[in-house]
Design goal:
Number of strands: 16
InterPro entries: HAD-like_sf (IPR036412), HAD_sf (IPR023214)
GO molecular function, one term: magnesium ion binding
CATH topology of the largest domain: Rossmann fold
Radius of gyration: 18 Å
EC number: 3.1.3.-
Structural class: alpha/beta
Organism: Acidipropionibacterium jensenii
Largest sheet: 8 strands, mixed
Keywords: Hydrolase
Distance between the termini: 14 Å
Number of domains: 2
Length: 257
């Protein structure tokens, strides 16, 4: 049975200067050995395409996008989707009015800038488009990300956002982003659904991630692994730490021989 590796992207495999050559080579070896690769990310489908497919990386087997709102095959064709309830975006717009942050909203494909009061430069949302708020009100949304680079602003906005979203949406912290996704959605729920409904029989499940939104995914794994630079809370939930995806893959492939 195929061993499954579900890996985060931002800060884990995808960094500011792209994907390191060692990780690129290791991922190719992982797939060539007949193992299963799942990309589990807060990114939109379009952002995954930009940082993975368009730079020549091999197709994964599956993608968990929008922190679990959308599950696709390796070519980014949707297999399962969960959309936001109508009206939430307008409430978030009102809540963060005047705050120094960037508010995005994402349909099944693209990220749109709803409000930008700080620089938008971030590899987490590498490509975005101006929002037509009226159109977005009548469109299925799968993610509402907020980029908040100032920790003081984060400390102020996060609890207010969680209160607003209680019972209506989930709020996941990823580095200096807050990802608002539909109720019950998380990387862990997406991975569990993928393993049960789509992958079927499989071997051990490894997860690799570096941030708080990876915790639910780590709970599903047989072998949860964190990056060495991960916050202490994330490392505490994992059985091991590594310096890179290449290091973890090399260890697993060695054990498979």
């Amino acid at each position: 049975m195929s061993t499954v590796l579900a890996t985060d992207l931002d800060g884990t495999v995808v960094v500011e200067d792209g994907i390191h050559p060692a990780d690129r080579e290791a991922i190719g070896s992982w797939l060539a050995a007949g193992n299963t690769l799942v990309l589990a990310t807060g990114k939109s489908v379009d952002a995954v395409r930009l940082v993975w497919h368009e730079v020549g990386m091999p197709d994964p087997d599956y993608v968990i996008a929008f922190t679990g709102s959308v599950i696709t095959d390796g070519s980014l064709h949707p297999l399962a989707v969960t959309a936001h309830q109508p009206g939430l975006l307008d409430d978030i717009v009102s809540l963060v009015d005047g705050e120094p942050l960037v508010l995005y909203a994402s349909d099944i494909e693209h990220d749109y800038v709803v409000a930008a009061r700080v620089s938008q430069h971030s590899s987490i949302v590498p490509r975005s488009y101006p929002a037509d708020l009226d159109r977005l009100r009548h469109t299925d949304l799968f993610g509402i990300p907020l980029y908040i680079p100032d920790p003081t602003v984060m400390d102020r906005v996060e609890p207010a956002l969680r209160k607003l979203c209680a019972g209506r949406a989930e709020v996941h912290r990823n580095q200096n982003f807050l990802d608002v996704v539909p109720p019950g959605v998380s990387k862990g729920a997406g991975l569990r659904r993928l393993l049960t409904d789509l992958i079927g029989d499989h071997g051990d499940v490894y997860t690799l991630g570096d941030s708080w939104n990876d915790l639910s995914m780590h709970e599903v794994a047989d072998h949860p692994v964190a990056l060495a630079h991960s916050p202490a809370q994330v490392r505490a939930h994992c059985e091991a730490t590594v310096d890179s995806a290449a290091q973890l893959i090399a260890q697993i492939l060695k054990e498979q021989k």
